[in-house]
Amino acid sequence: MLVAGDRGYIGAVLVPMLRAAGHQVGGLDLGLYDGCDLGPGPAAGAFADLREATPAQLAGYDAVICLAALSNDPLGQLNPAATFSVNLDGTLALARAAKAAGVERFLFASSCSLYGAAGSAGVAEDAELYPVTPYGETKVQAERGLSELADDSFSPVYLRNATAFGASPRHRLDIVVNNLTAVALTTGQVRLESDGTPWRPLVHVADIAAAFAEMLTAPRELIHDQPFNVGRQAGNVQVRDIAEMVAEAVPGSRVTLADGAGPDLRNYRVDFAKLTDTFPALELRWTPPEGVAELLTAYQTHGMSYQDFMSSRYVRLRRITELQQAGLLDPMLRRTSPAEPVGRPA
Ligand SMILES: NC(=O)c1ccc[n+]([C@@H]2O[C@H](COP(=O)([O-])OP(=O)(O)OC[C@H]3O[C@@H](n4cnc5c(N)ncnc54)[C@H](O)[C@@H]3O)[C@@H](O)[C@H]2O)c1
């Protein structure tokens, strides 16, 4: 199969898992975060934009996994037009090319953030969608566009992933558990940017990868044109609980509130029953405290300094801004010089 976005945070965990299971895996990535590694990262590859995908590039694959995206809310607010261009137009361009090439299955990395401000009653897949950010809106519209392509020969599936946590060779610190663990380790403070009351569903990056692997080989009738929330019931936690969990795990650290911290609009609990009912053999194993312990070990083993924490290395928005300032990406986040490597992080 082909993984678009194979050189990102989830891709760097998923691709080795698929290869270990005997799959042949090709990649397609713009290489935005090449070099942004925690330990040895994925090998560099060609730079390809999913917005330019052609049937010829996709011929011969039985499935496509689409992880390629501008992958979080702050990044989506930087330039909403670019987020729509990559996450909506790009996803649909890739899907149309895949369908034209005879690819039968298209697994789309959607997000629980399309539930947005759904609140504290657990939302299932048939709930109304209330995205509160351009990023969330792109996921809603991409699912709808993909659904229009569904037919007897093409099965899109929408994996609405909870917020990921856990170590990846292509690491990210702009997600809550990874961030709070790093800030606790490097400053002794678990700094909350909101008042800590919002609900946030969490899932380990390896468990997301396991769900993708399961849906690659699942019978078509189980997955055809279906959304699945991806996470565990026990992963629904309030941000202040995450902070306390981290403070407990990192010796000498304590919870603090950022100046002016107020409520966060993104607030939702998610119901994951459809995933467990449909795939009883799929075991999502990781609890948030296990993830915090894993992260601490990874940060200590590979080195995570305050300077790293503040740099562009692990924060998507800073990295994109840096590449734009260097003239390597245009405002729509197209590479200005296709032959040039995108450049290593500062
Ligand atoms: N990590 C999470 O918490 C989370 C939660 C829910 C959903 N998701 C979704 O899962 C997917 C993967 O997330 P991630 O955390 O690995 O993100 P990431 O930012 O680490 O990786 C995304 C990858 O896509 C590539 N990319 C970006 N624009 C591209 C383009 N135009 N053409 C080709 N490649 C391009 C980047 O270079 C990067 O390697 C995304 O769609 C994201 O929205 C992630």
In short:
The chain has helices spanning 11-20, 55-58, 73-78, 80-100, 134-149, 176-187, 205-217, 220-223, 239-249, 273-278, 288-302, 306-310, 316-325; strands spanning 2-4, 26-28, 63-66, 105-111, 119-123, 155-161, 163-165, 189-194, 199-204, 226-230, 236-238, 254-262, 268-270. It has 346 residues and is α/β, with parallel strands linked by helices.
Explain this structure.
The structure is a single chain. This protein has a six-stranded parallel beta sheet, with helices on both faces. Strands 7-9-11 form a three-stranded mixed beta sheet. A two-stranded parallel ribbon has the order 5-13. The chain has one domain (2-325): Rossmann fold (3-Layer(aba) Sandwich). The longest helix has 21 residues, at 80-100. It is of the alpha/beta class. The protein is 38% helix and 18% strand. It is built from 13 helices and 13 strands. Helix 1 links the parallel strand 1 and strand 2. It binds nicotinamide-adenine-dinucleotide. The site of nicotinamide-adenine-dinucleotide (NAD) has 29 residues, from helix 4, strand 4 and strand 7.
What descriptors fit this protein?
346 residues; Rossmann fold; six-stranded parallel beta sheet; three-stranded mixed beta sheet; globular; disordered C terminus; binds nicotinamide-adenine-dinucleotide
CATH fold label:
Rossmann fold
Main sheet: strand order: 2-1-3-4-6-10
Number of helices: 13
Radius of gyration: 19 Å
C-alpha end-to-end distance: 33 Å
Q: Would you count the extended β strands for me?
A: 13
Instruction: State the order of secondary-structure elements, H for helix, E for strand.
Output: EHEHEHHEEHEEHEEHHEEHEEHHHH
* Residues in β-strands, percent: 15-25%
What is the CATH H-level superfamily? NAD(P)-binding Rossmann-like Domain
**Average pLDDT reading:** 92
Bound compounds, each kind once, are: nicotinamide-adenine-dinucleotide
Give the overall shape. globular
The CATH architecture: 3-Layer(aba) Sandwich
Q: Biggest sheet, open or closed, and with what strands and sense?
A: 6 strands, parallel
Number of domains: 1
CATH uppermost class: Alpha Beta
Percent helix, as a range, is 25-40%
**What are the low-pLDDT stretches, counting only 5+ consecutive residues below 50?**
341-346
